[in-house]
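FORM 12-B: Structure-to-Sequence Request
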């Protein structure tokens, strides 16, 4: 993809055992030869079971960890060495929204102070943000009038909105969403997903959306990549992957999804029987 804002080319991330689950000398291939591209304003869903390597891939994409092999480029340039001033500048443009927002926020500071602190750390004008003023940004994510509150005074959904606001205040090109809604109730999940889509339409931010929930990924993604054992086993437009999955692992993930209605379940069961008859 020539216009990719983010590209991972044949990237691997291996960990050598030093005790614990891995014996000394053993190697865990968390990510093993993966190619991923992300276009401006696009959502690429990364889906797989726990241990498939998707969160490690997200950290490589965000520049939090270096690859053991392969190349990661942002806007056509490799990530700078971790900890360097150039790397800090790049980190402004690639933000991360993690699974547990309470762990991503400082309990001692108000929400507004934490957003303001992130902007000051990147030498941005705290009177302005990606959505205008700080008050306007908080209102845009559904936290109008709540900037002076502390994390313990907010619900789980409000905390995630605060983390999204902090990321958006830096006007990033890419946000890596690592299980960003998995800790929320279903109704709150839908609200956050709709918010992310609205913000994408407004600010043209690209998402690398990581989740074990294929139903959630289907709701937000333009393309989907399915990971298993550190590798991508299937990738393509979201509609194509769901309508005609090629890989047996992808088929199993889709089959595990609850059907939207009894008629949809019957149609899916009939398709399975037909596919089985062709084998």
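FORM 12-B RESPONSE
SEQUENCE OUT:
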């Amino acid at each position: 993809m020539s216009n990719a804002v983010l590209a991972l080319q044949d990237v691997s991330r291996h960990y050598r055992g030093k005790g614990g689950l891995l014996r000394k000398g053993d190697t865990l291939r968390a990510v093993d030869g993966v190619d991923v591209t992300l276009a401006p304003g696009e959502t690429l869903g990364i889906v797989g079971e726990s241990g498939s390597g998707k969160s490690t891939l997200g950290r490589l994409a965000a520049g939090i960890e270096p690859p053991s092999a392969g190349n990661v480029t942002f806007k056509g340039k490799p990530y700078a060495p971790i900890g360097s001033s150039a790397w800090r500048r790049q980190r402004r443009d690639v933000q991360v929204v993690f699974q547990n927002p309470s762990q991503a926020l400082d309990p001692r500071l108000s929400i507004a102070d934490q957003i303001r602190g992130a902007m000051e750390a990147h030498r941005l004008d705290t009177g302005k943000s990606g959505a205008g003023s700080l008050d306007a940004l908080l209102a845009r994510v559904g936290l109008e009038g709540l900037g002076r509150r502390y994390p313990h005074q907010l619900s789980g959904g409000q905390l995630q909105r605060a983390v999204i606001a902090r990321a958006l205040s830096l006007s990033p090109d890419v946000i890596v969403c690592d299980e960003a809604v998995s800790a929320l109730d279903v109704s709150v999940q839908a609200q956050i997903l709709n918010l992310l889509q609205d913000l994408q339409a407004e600010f043209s931010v690209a998402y690398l959306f990581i989740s074990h929930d294929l139903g959630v990924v289907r709701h937000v993604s333009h393309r989907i990549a399915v990971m298993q054992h550190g590798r991508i086993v299937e990738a393509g437009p979201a509609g194509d992957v769901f309508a005609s999955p090629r890989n047996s692992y992808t088929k199993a993930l889709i089959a595990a999804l609850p059907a939207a209605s009894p008629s949809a379940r019957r149609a899916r069961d009939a398709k399975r029987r037909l596919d089985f008859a062709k084998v």
